[in-house]
């Protein structure tokens, strides 16, 4: 039930906080010649973080000439991989929820449903671990590439001591940090669900049935043999009533108790 409730929600939070991100930073370049200064250089970037495509203009503090620069790095692979995992995990968890609720009988038919669910759960657990780790590393690189102090080093005007270059506003990365957290939470959720899905498979049930079957076979072998069917009791071959007292195999009733002495006396 926890999987049904939390898996879609965690997946939504993961891809929404990452795939819907857009941020920016602001820099200030104060040239020695104030007329050449630019105190508001805005640089905006967003998902999927192909930063090399983010261009901006900066003053050179050499007349009115400006230079065109771009950020450094391409971190789209890890970000898109993370979002893709989140989207497919969300879709599968929704489909699994519908099957659990409305098609429970077909889900357990021939044990195919639990086996497929188990395999998919293992795969998604592995993907969440890999995707979250890759995106955590990618996010760390994004933070470095968009650090205002690092971006200022790209400007030729900031290499001159007569000019003052300052960061005005840094990008807010809280939502991206949240996406990494939800990524690892998804991994914990899916990995923890492996055991519960495994118990629904035939592998677990067959493993549980073998020891009782072995004991049953052993007990039945002793019960069916000549060791536990009252062999020495009232119905056995060694304690059958009537062999010597009642109607037996070699005479009439009481053949050795009463009939023997009487016939001998009559003969005398």
Please describe what this structure looks like:
The protein is an alpha+beta fold and 268 residues long. The protein is 56% helix and 13% strand. It contains eight helices and five strands. It has helices spanning 2-19, 76-102, 104-108, 112-145, 148-152, 174-198, 202-224, 255-267; strands at 22-30, 38-46, 55-59, 66-70, 164-169. It has a three-stranded antiparallel beta sheet. The protein has a two-stranded antiparallel ribbon with strand order 3-4. A hairpin with a 6-residue loop joins strand 3 and strand 4. Helix 1 (2-19) packs antiparallel against helix 2 (76-102), helix 1 (2-19) runs antiparallel to helix 6 (174-198) and helix 2 packs antiparallel against helix 4 (112-145). 24% of the residues are buried.
What is shown here, in short?
Helix content is 56%, strand content 13%.
Topology overview:
Layout: H1 2-19, E1 22-30, E2 38-46, E3 55-59, E4 66-70, H2 76-102, H3 104-108, H4 112-145, H5 148-152, E5 164-169, H6 174-198, H7 202-224, H8 255-267
Antiparallel strand pairs: 1-2, 1-5, 3-4
Helix pairs in contact: 1-2, 1-6, 2-4, 4-6
